[in-house]
Fold this sequence. Notes:
heterotrimer, B: mainly alpha, 12 helices, globular, C: Rossmann fold, four-stranded antiparallel β-sheet, 10 strands
Amino acid sequence: MQETYKPTSVLDSFVTVGRSSRRSVPWRWRQWKDVFADHSVRLITTAVSLLALVMGIALLIRAWPILSSRPLGELLFSSTWQPVKGYFGFWPFIMSSILVTLLAMLLAVPCATFSAIYLAEYNHSTRAFFKPVIDMLASIPSVVYGLWGVLFVVPFVRDVAGKWIGETLGAVLPFLANDNPTGYGLLAGGIVLAIMVFPIIVSVTEEVLRSVPQNMREASLALGATHWETTKFVVLRHALPGVIAANVLGFSRAFGETLAVMMVVGNVVQVPHSLFDAAYPLPALIANNYGEMMSIPMYDAALMGAALVLLAVVLVFNVGAQLVLSRLTGRQ
Amino acid sequence: MNRRQKRRWEEIFFKTVMRGSLLLIAVVLGLIVVSITWKGIGALNWQMLTQAPQGGFYMGKEGGILNAITGSLLLAVGATALALVSALPVVFYLHAYAGRSRWVSGVRLALDVLWGIPSIVYGAFGFTLMLLVGLRASLLGGIIALTLVELPILARTMDEVLRMVPSDLKEATRALGTTRLELTGILLRQTIPGLVTAVLLAFGRGIGDAASVLFTAGYTDNMPQSLLRPVASLPLAVFFQLNTPFPEVQERAYASALVLMMLVLVISLLSRLSLKLLGKYVVR
Amino acid sequence: MHNIAPHLSIRNLNVWLDAQHVLKDIAADIPRRCITAIVGPSGCGKTTLLRSLNRLVELGPNVRITGKVLFDDTDIYHPGMDVAEVRTRIGLLAQKPFPLPMSIYDNVAYGPRIHGTARTGLDQTVHSCLQAAQLWDEVADRLKAPATELSAGQQQRLCLARALAVKPDILLCDESTSALDPISARGIEDLLLTLKTDYTIVLVTHDLDQARRLADYVIFLWLGEVIEQGPAADLFENPAQDFTRAYLEREIG
């Protein structure tokens, strides 16, 4: 294909194939395609990279009516939630989210960390079996976990855990008191969430542990340390920032998890005071009320504000964790 | 107990704890799969798979979940296709056009962060977009929201796969006078099993995601009719039909959960298989 | 000198890494309180042999080991053997210095701490080991600083001090000077020469001049087999095998 166009020096710099930079040789169609692709690829990549920012701005704009009409302190820390009367206090939802997430982490972190240590440090042959198990856990949809929670965890909490703990320890410790006969509550939500964040914590922790240089382990083993001592004093110590980052990722995943939690957590607007109380996390608030949000003034702004809070928390945690991880494992 | 025995016992103790943790998690997975299958298998029959619900809203006792199955497939296929179209340029950028630019790590960070954003936020954002253009809850809206959910998964997984290609190969290819566009094409063809893995992974995530389609795709007892009408989806079929007082409708929830779980597990296994092929025949 | 009982004796040792037969029927004796050099061209299994003397070799995937390594007449591969104990008594100085992620003091104290040596003696142990490794004067004022701040030569001496702190009987050195600058390398060599009065030292090296400078006893390894072994003077001046002669004259390897 004969082209008569002579490339300008600016365009020239995009083309790295040596021959084409000699002006006497006409550009070929394939090089044109390359330059065109260059521009469009950069454009799309920029758009995608800025997506999180765009989402933040869009949600901010939609939430602005409520953010500008009420003091932020009242929105975040008031416990009065009466949309029809115009009271929007997010405190019960924020506390519910934090508590259910922390509970899930409390249950998941020890188990996940020990599992990851075993897979990375101890037995490489069990990996072949457990990698698929962890992948499968990660791939099961939220709603299936929710259904399983309803069928299995809620009855367990209601008939076993709630009864026993509520009657024994609950009489002494107020945060273990059980006056919720349904089983739907913090504990059920925490258990289901714990299983859901388990895979991400395990796989990221394992990746971090694997990035610890083998020589570091050998140095410790050669001094007569046992395997566990080496893990505890050397590997975990070296990988500590990454292990923390893995748990932060798990936390932010749990914080935004919607359906599974919502199906088992009870959804009562209150600040839960006991392990068995019903709770109402932020994602559940959004998901439960989107239907009527256009019919009550400010309601849609309030729900978009909740989404904004979620996004902000997750962004901060994720960016921090990813920066630590990329430095540690050299992923980026 | 002397020091040496104590150290040995500590080793044995923690090893047991670790094995216990892994065993616990395997048991939990087994429990989930078995109990969902147990509940679902009783509800599953030919009618369930081949008919949409008959009769009124959430109340019709006859019929099955065909509306949700087709809806979910349409949503996930549409979203995966759109996500692929938008993820490919990003991958092209990262591997051929960016060179040694320091933007590369910025883009990867952005994708990793996007991957971590909860799908309910994508749903809320998608809903905002739809309001902007006057679109109501519909197949199209659901596809758009799901595309956003799947995009970072696809882009980042493909990126990781391409990073497994030795850089010598890239340089050798460039040295032959290929353009960057052609180079990327060659790289992609080299790593097809890996790309299949990425697509399967994104598809699996898309088909199981409920929170993003909740606002954007809506729900209906009817079969999907047009891009601009609401569609049912398997996750929401579980969610909405579980809480009805009618056992027949609840059965549909159990059946939907089983179908969904099986779909996703098969996809997960397939993607593993595909990744194995990649390691065996393509890279290295 | 060599007629006393050997400190380590290797009997029919075979090692496979994956399907590769890396060490073939190794039989060798390592005399007490001497420096034994294992020499041979790269890839001949020197490092694998050294790492099988304190059972580090078994850390890799798909390793198979047969045969015995007798350490004062006890087989270190005996199933009832405590691996940590073996590695405590047979220390290792690796090819590259790898300080543990902690302070200089804690690096040296690491071994004594896990082995439960009395807390009171710890400062004294750290002091004497750093002195033995001739590092004390350089780090005395910054014991709490991270070990990674030291230069490579200093780090290697720190690793030596760390190895000495667990009071091993045998010290294995895996080309421990190859990653260092010539001056630091010479420093380590001099240290090893002074240490051999108290320790049995096994040294892997591809540097024949280094072997000549240091070794009392030499094992020549070729493609996973022991070709020749004997007192350094005999082997270097008057090798029994043509192979060894060719290697010493740098015709092969």
